[in-house]
């Protein structure tokens, strides 16, 4: 069964993660479990799930909350081995930020094939 993300309107200081269902199966993960693990990990920084695969940074601490959450996730092998896309939305940028592209340029060692 293919898993479908609910697409929402981009919200400043939020991020969306899409896991690759085929990679997840190969690596022994259920895709819903990956989203639940993500939620547990980013909630420590005040991020709140606002849709399947989308989290909003903590009010009043948006920069710190979102940056810490994305940094944590990019260091987690279980995330990076199963990721399809990771997109951030900020209030000072008119376009979405492809966080995997940021990692390709700055921390390529965190990316898996």
TrEMBL record:
Record-given protein name: Uncharacterized protein
């Amino acid at each position: 069964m293919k898993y479908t993300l609910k697409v929402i309107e981009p919200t400043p200081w939020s991020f969306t993660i899409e896991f690759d269902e085929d990679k997840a199966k190969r690596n022994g993960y259920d895709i819903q479990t990956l989203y639940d693990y993500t939620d547990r990990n980013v909630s420590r920084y005040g991020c709140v799930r606002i849709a399947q695969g989308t989290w909003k940074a903590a009010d009043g601490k948006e920069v710190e909350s979102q940056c810490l959450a994305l940094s944590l996730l990019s260091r987690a092998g279980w995330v990076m081995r199963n990721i399809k896309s990771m997109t951030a939305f900020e209030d000072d940028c008119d376009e979405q930020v492809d966080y995997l592209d940021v990692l390709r340029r700055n921390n390529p060692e965190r990316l898996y094939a």
